[in-house]
Structure formats: structure tokens, C-alpha cells
Amino acid sequence: VQLQASGGGLVQAGGPLSLSCRASGRTVSNNGMGWFRQAPGKEREGVSCISSGDGINYYVDSVKGRFTTLRDNAEGTVYLQMNSLKPEDTAVYYCAATFSRTCSPHMTDYNFWGRGTLVTVSS
User: Fold this and answer.
1) Across the chain, what does the average pLDDT equal?
2) Predicted confidence band of residue 53 (pLDDT cuts 50, 70, 90)
3) CA atoms 30, 52, 105, 37: torsion sign
4) Model pLDDT for residues 61-79, shown as the tens digit of each residue
5) Which residues contact 60 (CB under 8 A, 6 or more apart)?
6) Residue spans of beta strands (DSSP E) within the chain
7) From CA 103, how far away is CA 11, in angstroms rounded?
8) What gap in Å lies between CA 101 and CA 95, rounded to an integer?
9) Which one, 7, 33, 41, 74, has least CB within 10 Å?
10) Distance CA 104, CA 100 (A)
11) Helix (H, G, I), strand (E, B) or coil at 27
């Protein structure tokens, strides 16, 4: 499966931005999907994920209440809706898919990765 993340850009602090991750090559409707980010000089961290079926989500504490992950299985697309963005949200954002139906916040649980999309939040 190939994953393509898009939607990154420059946004002012407090503003919204929505990222998309489109899968091609095979369906990901039965796969857990995750969003990760890597800020300059920092390790990649799990931001959010959404499981297949019941769509149970995970959010890292720093984004709870501000970010929402949704999936459209018919379109093979996962979305990361980001609100009230902060300068510390600046990072390259990656989407990933795991063979498991249950998503995970851990990088090592993922089997497919897309290229990142840069989000820059200005203060």
C-alpha cells in the first residue's frame, strides 16, 4: 500500500489546518492508521491514530481537544483535523498503516509509511 500525506503548510498560531492521507494500491479499511510527527532535532512521536471497525482513537496528551482523526474508508483516506495550532506543533507529519485492525501510538507497530508533509505554525 502506498500512502500520500498532504495538506501541510504555514499557518498562524491559533489557526486550523487539515491533513489528508490517501491510500492507494490496496484498501486500508481493515488497518489501523496513525499520524506521527517529527520536529527539528526531536524524535518522531505518535500524535494520533484510529483503529478499523469501531474507529477507536488515540491522541497524545499535547493535542487532546485540539486534533481530531477521522477516516473515510470508501475514499481510502484518513484525516487529521488540527485546531488551535501552536508553534510547538511545527513538524513534519507522517501517516502510517499497520497490519493490525487496532491502531497504536508506537512507530514500530506500523508497516507502511507515507512521505511527510510539513506543518509550520508561526507565532
Assistant:
1) 95
2) confident
3) positive
4) 999 999 999 999 999 999 9
5) 45, 46, 47, 48, 105
6) 2-6, 9-12, 17-24, 32-38, 45-50, 57-59, 67-72, 77-82, 91-98, 112-113, 117-122
7) 28
8) 15
9) 41
10) 9
11) coil
